[in-house]
Design a protein that fits this description.
By secondary structure, the chain is an alpha/beta fold. The protein contains 13 helices and 25 strands. Bound molecules: flavin-adenine dinucleotide and nicotinamide-adenine-dinucleotide.
């Protein structure tokens, strides 16, 4: 770092220390680069605070609590209680643990005896020109010059028009840790991943009556109907009141409570009382007010920065020396994607690209009860692209390890190409360990493997993954347990272009229930 009257120069300037920025900075040191990370707030971004690590810590605690509360397993905990402040302290302890690891790494590479170095600068960064950013550290201005820049500024919760958040009673996921106690009654607006995860967490602790507003009749609207229905039913079993096909008309603030008016597609309305409303209707990229206009870069209508396959930002004149990664780009808003893209940008700057991302093997873990894991294509995406497939559903009811766990609520659903090769295209899995074994199928997809590769291997017994092998055998009509004997638990189907889209009788069922 060279310092001349608060002016600093670096090979690579990274804006944002979330999973994308942190990975990019550290990979750049592998190439001997002098790097700085500029962070306006918490180190680790949404990868740590008010995001992945804090929500997952809270999830794990809530799952432990819900297991401890069970009375059907031969044991019974007595006088079980939970205190929000103590839960919050444990969550913050987990976040601090990770942040100290990140800071230890940065301090190690602040040492100039290393070939590559990292400096951490605190403040809000904004481009002044193509090679300069200004950093505002609470009024103290710094000027940072860079040969290359990596924009990793992440995303923030989308605002709901007409509803103002106050961080106390009307909140977003950024304010969960500011709550001082479990809300008695919580309305969650938005039934995507964040909405369903917090519905799971708060219902697990069993201190809160949870209402989940689902404006369509599908929670997780991008997943196949059977998966969406499975998740929705589980939320309801856990005590969540799911308001399908409901639109929020307004929230009226009273001194002791919030009055919420919901309008259902069926024509009726309902007024409910809650203590806290959590808005979780998606996240928008942090691309405003960072000086993109000075670079000639125009975000798309969703605010995303246009990039090439390496993450290089394109302006009106073509490629630039600026990269954008993670939640500010068009790919999925996931930790693993931000991290991969960060590493790739650093490699591209060093002209040493190792691997380009193959998004067909991208996986997502969803922290519900039970957990759900997804990799590759689902039926919806294949039908949209007119790609034929065969599908198999195999319930954990038939998997010995799940039987031993007394935990058979789950399944694997695998899609393969509808040809002789039967290449694996995607999997959805739920139940114990689904988040751990999904990556095995990601590898199979990445290697272009087919059903036969799975049939060749010894699957250890008793393991949850035996469901994967038995489901593949069922697709090949070679399974040990037969679909004809267990029609609800082993299902094989196929879809060809021209066939009607897959449907469930759910729409009618929900319309009837809302009219009651
Ligand atoms: C509640 C929640 C739970 C989630 N759970 C999961 C999960 O289980 N799995 C998963 O894969 N993903 C999950 N995500 C998504 C994941 O957090 C993001 O995809 C990921 O953090 C994106 O990384 P990023 O580096 O692009 O941005 P971020 O993590 O958002 O980091 C951006 C950083 O840039 C900083 N910054 C912004 N503007 C400036 C500026 N102008 N100057 C300086 N600094 C700036 C911010 O302060 C922030 O620290 C979750 C998100 C939320 C909100
Ligand atoms: N486990 C994970 O991987 C994980 C966990 C949390 C978040 N994330 C990431 O964070 C991103 C944001 O999560 P999210 O749940 O906020 O977004 P989302 O896109 O997953 O879901 C948003 C939901 O809000 C609904 N919605 C949108 N506008 C609405 C309105 N006006 N009224 C009512 N409902 C409305 C949508 O129909 C959808 O169901 C996700 O896309 C995901 O990539 C991932």
């Amino acid at each position: 770092m060279t310092n001349a009257t608060d002016q600093y120069s670096f090979d690579v300037v990274v804006i944002g220390s979330g999973p994308g920025g942190f990975a990019a900075a550290n990979r750049a040191t592998d190439f001997g680069k002098k790097v700085c990370i500029i962070e306006k707030s918490h180190i680790g971004g949404a990868g740590v605070i008010n995001g992945v690590l804090t929500s997952k810590t809270m999830y794990e605690l809530s799952m432990d609590y819900s297991v401890a509360a069970r009375v059907d397993r031969g044991y019974r905990a007595s006088a079980l209680s939970v205190d929000y402040n103590l839960v919050r302290n444990t969550v913050l302890e987990a976040a601090r643990e990770k942040q100290y690891q990140m800071r230890s790494q940065i301090e190690t590479f602040a040492n100039v005896s290393h070939k590559g170095t990292i400096s951490l600068i605190t403040g809000y960064a904004k481009f002044k020109d193509a090679h300069t950013v200004e950093v505002d550290d609470q009024g103290k201005m710094l000027t940072i010059h860079g040969d290359y820049f990596i924009i990793a500024t992440g995303a923030h919760p989308r605002r709901l028009p007409g509803v103002k958040t106050d961080g106390k009673r009307i909140i977003t996921s950024d304010n969960i840790l500011s709550l001082s106690k479990f809300p008695g009654r919580l309305l969650i607006i938005g039934s995507g991943i964040i909405g369903c995860e917090f519905a799971t967490i708060f219902s697990n602790f069993n201190q809160t009556q949870v209402h989940l507003l689902d404006r369509s009749n599908r929670v997780l609207p991008y997943e196949d109907d059977d998966v969406s229905e499975f998740v929705s039913d589980n939320l309801e079993k856990n005590g969540v009141i799911v308001h399908h096909t409901a639109q929020l008309r307004c929230i009226r603030e009273h001194p002791g409570h919030l009055e919420v008016v919901l309008d259902y597609d069926a024509g009726n309305s309902r007024v409910i009382e809650v203590d806290v409303a959590l808005i979780a209707i998606g996240r928008e990229p942090n691309t405003q007010n960072i000086g993109l206009e000075t670079l000639g870069v125009t975000p798309d209508k969703r605010g995303l920065i246009p990039v090439d396959e390496n993450g290089c930002v394109e302006n009106n004149h073509g490629h630039t020396h600026i990269y954008a990664i993670g939640d500010v780009t068009a790919q999925a808003q996931l930790y693993s994607v931000a991290e991969f893209q960060g590493r790739l940008a650093a490699e591209a700057i060093a002209k040493s690209i190792c691997y380009l991302p193959d998004y067909s093997n991208m996986s997502t873990l969803m922290f519900f009860k039970p957990e759900v894991a997804a990799v590759g294509a689902n039926e919806k995406t294949l039908q949209e692209k007119n790609i034929g497939y065969r599908a198999v559903f195999y319930s954990n009811i038939l998997v010995n390890r799940a039987i031993a766990m007394r935990n058979t609520h789950g399944f694997v659903k695998i899609l393969v190409s509808n040809d002789d090769e039967q290449r694996i295209l995607g999997m959805r899995a739920s139940g114990p360990q689904a988040s751990a074994y999904i990556v095995a199928v990601a590898h199979l997809i990445n290697q272009g493997n087919s059903l036969s590769e799975v049939l060749r291997v010894f699957y250890p017994h008793p393991s949850i993954t035996e469901g994967i092998q038995e489901s593949m055998r069922a697709l090949a009509s070679k399974s040990i347990f037969k679909p004809v004997a267990f029609p609800k638990h082993i299902k094989v189907s196929e879809w060809k272009p021209g066939d009607p889209k897959t449907q469930t009788p759910r729409d009618e069922k929900i319309r009837k229930s809302q009219k009651k």
